[in-house]
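Data deposition worksheet. Section B asks for the primary sequence of the deposited chain exactly as it was used as input, without tags or linkers unless they were present during the calculation. Section C holds the resulting structure in token form. Section D is free text for depositor observations; keep each observation to a single sentence. Incomplete worksheets are returned to the depositor.
Section A, Depositor: J.P.
Section B:
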Amino acid sequence: MQFILVVLLALGAILDLLLGISFFIDPAGAGADFGLQSPTPEGLSAMRGDFTAFFWLAALCMGWTAWKRRADMLWPALALFTIAFSGRLVNLVAVGAYDGWWQPMIVEALHVIVMVMAIKLLPYGRVSPAGSV
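Section C:
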């Protein structure tokens, strides 16, 4: 089970890294995929900075966890995706559904589920070699 979680974390890290790169290189194009548009330099700057930070931090946390097989680095990424999912849920209730509303929520929910499982099953802190005291 731990191996499967590590693979899922690594795949999530790659996805988030690529999303961050797309916002960094082409915020207008990446934003359009998320239903966002900004005709102003300030808006493009916000998309480039904020979305890149979101996805790169998540990728770093998930990638580090997959590499080291330690769950202590997952908390920041878990917070990001839990807040994002909660915001979408509030919007769904307050504003209503739109075409494709469920797709980003599934991606965010899968991120949260995988990270919660990894936090429960992977060790924390320094992992000692077998047999040491």
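Section D:
The mean pLDDT is 93.
Helices lie at 2-25, 27-33, 41-68, 75-94, 102-121.
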